[in-house]
Each structure stands twice: as structure tokens, then as C-alpha cells.
Write a structure and sequence with these properties.
This protein has 297 residues and is α/β, with parallel strands linked by helices. The chain has 14 helices and 6 strands. A 6-stranded mixed sheet has the order 3-2-1-4-5-6, with helices on both faces.
């Protein structure tokens, strides 16, 4: 049986921007993201996973990475009141449906997923996300990344084919090329192909920085200049690696058995659906949760 570790916020934002505002809760806020996320979570539960958990992002501006680098994710605006309502409502729905949910003001959802991967590594969890950063979890026990919307599974070989580096090198790769979505700068003149070529020769950035004289002799265009820039930007690269490497040592105080979907109160979940203006899902909620609960309708 499968273990799903879900990058919840990625899908909440997807539905928030992709679906029309056709649903409104009793509080007066639009709830299209709540509809999309709840439908998505029901689809996952309907596949009968043995273990399942959702990680939510609540650390924008308060993450430990902001202490290391104040400009981390500085271009991202805090959710407005309407979006914040939907984010909270999605977590409320997931918890009511019996799904183990995790969030932190200090750690990002990606870090929580890393910790959950460590906890459930023997189960070879599937990471439900399209976030490239999570590719590094394929070197820590995860079986694959699954972009649910596109129905694309990526194992270690597929990640290496896409980025040119092994899963355990994803953080090093991002430290070299940067990550504009997180406002992490890269090394000028080092793009994806050059970074992949360097990491084909060296296992990680520390090995690379220790042997810049070898870099200068590589059959790369401008190799001598690349070697000089690596030395010039060495501290930036090391900082970027700390920002891009997922923290899996978080103490969550749970074991894998805590990730078993819990028996849900179907009538309460359906009442919540009415509260959030997504009553059209009540029949699906009833069917899906009855199956999870081992009940007959």
C-alpha cells in the first residue's frame, strides 16, 4: 500500500489561481481553492493509501532561512485576508477528513516533508508535489515525486535526466544556478548546463570549491573564468547551499503509525463543506470517507 506525503500549499495555490470564483463560504470569502483542494484530497484518499500526511506553509517571513538571509523569498507578498482564509480552511478540511497535517512558523512545508520522509523512509513514500527542490528527497528514502495534476511521476533517474544531477546534488545545483522563485542568487555566468557539468566532476560544492584549480583545466568554455568566479562567490555559494538544503531533523513527535488516515466524522465534514460553500462535494465526501472508515452508506 502507498504512502502519500503531500505538498499541500502548492496545490492550494494552483487551485486558487486556476479555478474561477464560483464558490463562496458563509463568511463571504471566495472558496475556489477550498473546493479544488478538498476534491484533490478526496481523490488521494480514494486511492486507499496506508499512510498520508499534508504539509502546509505558514513560515513566510518567519522561516529560519530568513535569519540566515533576510532577502529569502523577499519578493513574495504575504497572503491577503481572503487567501489566508482559504489556506486555513483547506487545513481545517484536511484535518476533518482524518489526514495528518503539519505546519510550522520556523520550517517550510518542504522541510516538514523531508522530516516526514525520514520518518516513513521504510515505506518508500511518494512525494505529491511538482516542486523541484523536493527532488533531493529521492536520495533520502522517497520513491518518486508525483505531479498529481499532470499525473507525472519522477524517480531518481528522471530527476537526473531533467536536471543533469543526482537527487542528492539538487541543493548544490541550486546553490550554483540560484533559485529566482526563492530570491536566492546564483553565480554569474553559471547556468544549468555548466552547473550540471561541474557536479558531474565533483560530488558537491565543497569538493568543487576545494579544487578550483581542476575546474580551470576542465574542457569547458571559459573554465578559467568559472574557477575565478567560484572563488569570488564561495561564501555566497555556501550560504545558498544552506538555504536550498532541506532540513529533515525537525522533531515532529510522531511515528509512521500516526500517518494512518483517521476515521472521520462524515456528517461533520459535510457540514464543513456547507460552511465553506462547497456542498456540491458532499456526496463524494460521503462515499470516499465511508470507504476509508470501512463503512457502508
Amino acid at each position: 500500500m502507498t504512502t502519500y506525503l503531500v505538498d499541500a500549499s502548492v496545490y492550494i495555490f494552483r487551485y486558487y489561481f486556476a479555478l474561477p470564483p464560483n464558490w463562496t463560504g458563509r463568511q463571504g470569502y471566495p472558496t475556489e481553492a477550498v473546493y479544488g483542494f478538498t476534491n484533490f484530497a478526496l481523490d488521494l484518499l480514494g486511492r486507499g493509501p496506508r499512510y498520508m500526511a499534508c504539509a502546509f506553509d505558514e513560515s513566510l517571513g518567519s522561516c529560519f532561512r530568513n535569519e540566515l538571509y533576510p532577502d529569502y523569498k523577499c519578493s513574495r507578498a504575504q497572503p491577503d485576508e481572503a487567501l489566508a482564509f482559504q489556506l486555513a480552511a483547506c487545513r481545517e478540511m484536511a484535518e476533518a477528513m482524518g489526514i495528518a497535517c503539519f505546519a510550522s512558523e520556523r520550517y517550510e512545508a518542504d522541510d516538514l516533508l523531508a522530516a516526514l520522509t525520514r520518518i516513513s523512509a521504510d515505506q518508500r513514500p511518494v512525494i505529491v508535489s511538482r516542486d523541484k527542490d523536493l527532488g533531493q528527497l529521492l536520495a533520502r528514502g522517497a520513491a518518486s515525486l508525483w505531479d498529481f495534476a499532470a499525473d507525472i511521476h519522477m524517480g531518481a533517474a528522471a530527476v537526473q535526466a531533467k536536471f543533469g544531477v543526482r537527487p542528492e546534488q539538487i541543493a548544490d545545483y541550486l546553490a550554483l544556478v540560484g533559485d529566482s522563485s526563492d530570491d536566492i542568487p546564483g553565480v554569474p555566468g553559471i547556468g544549468p548546463k555548466t552547473a550540471a557539468r561541474l557536479l558531474m566532476e565533483f560530488d558537491d560544492i565543497e569538493a568543487l570549491l576545494r579544487h578550483t584549480e581542476r575546474v580551470a583545466r576542465l574542457p569547458l568554455r571559459g573554465a578559467a573564468g568559472i574557477a575565478k568566479r567560484l572563488l569570488t562567490y564561495a561564501e555566497q555559494i555556501r550560504l545558498a547551499k544552506r538555504l536550498t538544503c532541506l532540513e529533515d531533523g525537525i522533531e515532529l513527535s510522531v511515528g509512521v503509525d500516526d500517518l494512518v488516515p483517521r476515521k472521520a466524522d462524515i456528517h461533520f465534514v459535510q457540514a464543513l463543506a456547507d460552511e465553506f460553500g462547497i456542498g456540491g462535494l458532499k456526496a463524494k465526501i460521503g462515499r470516499t470517507l465511508a470507504a476509508v472508515n470501512g463503512e457502508t452508506l
